[in-house]
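Record minuted for completeness.

…
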Amino acid sequence: MKIKDITDFLEEIAPLDLQEGYDNAGLIVGRHESEVQGVLISLDTTEKVIDEAIQRGCNLVVSHHPIIFQGLKRLNGYHYVERAVIQAIKNDIAIYAIHTNLDNVLLHGVNEKIAQKIGLNTIKILRTKDQETVGSGLIGRLSSSLSFDDFAQHLVETMQLTGFRHTEIISDQISKVALCGGSGRFLLEDAISAQADVFISADFKYHEYFEANEQITIIDIGHFESERFTIELLHQLITGKFTTFAAYCTKVNTNPLKYRY
C-alpha cells in the first residue's frame, strides 16, 4: 500500500481543486510512492505530533491544517513549523493536509460531521459554489426546537465544550442552525439571509460580533473545538477503506489556547 493510494482516496472525497486560493492542501512532505507503515491523524501537525508518529511507527501524518501555508525561506529549526518539518524529514515521515477542500464538500465533510454531532437534519450547503453539493458552511434543522438554554446545554455536551461565547439571544426557540467549522465570519450574512436562529462558528473579532445586528445569535465555540471531530471523521474514512495498516487518532491536544477558570 502506497501513500498515493490513500491520497487518491481522500481526493476522491475532497478534490484538491476545491481548496481555497490561500490554502496548501495535499502532500506537503514525502513521496507518493512510499510504502505506508502506519497513519496518524491530527488536526494540526506539530513537533509533538511527529514525535507521536515516530513512537507509533507511523510514516504518514494526515492533518486537517497544513503545516506550511507559504514558502519557507530557511530551515534552521528556530520556528515551530521548521522544527516539525525537519523532524518529519529526518524520520522519513510524510505529511498530508486535507483542509478547505474538506470544508467545501457536504458528504463526508467537516461541516457534515459537526451537523451529525449536534443532530441536524435536512442539511445543505450554506453558500454554494458551482454545484449544490459544493460550497462553504452548512444549514439544517433540529428534529424538534429547543429553548436557547436547552440548546446551549445540548451543544456543550455533543461538541464536548467547556463553554462558548455568544451574542444577544434573538430567539428563545432554536430550530434552524447554520454553522461553519473554523473561521466562519465570512458566512454571517449568508446565515442571516437563510433566517437561521443561530450561527455556530469560531474566530470572530470583537467588532464583528456587532454584525449579528439583532438578526441572529452568533455562537463562537472556538476554532479547535469546532473542528476537533475532523480527526474522527478522517479516521473513520481511512479505516473504512483500508485494512492493511494501522491508523490512529492523535492523542496530542494541539489546541494552542489554554483555559483557566
Remarks:
- The chain has a mean pLDDT of 97.
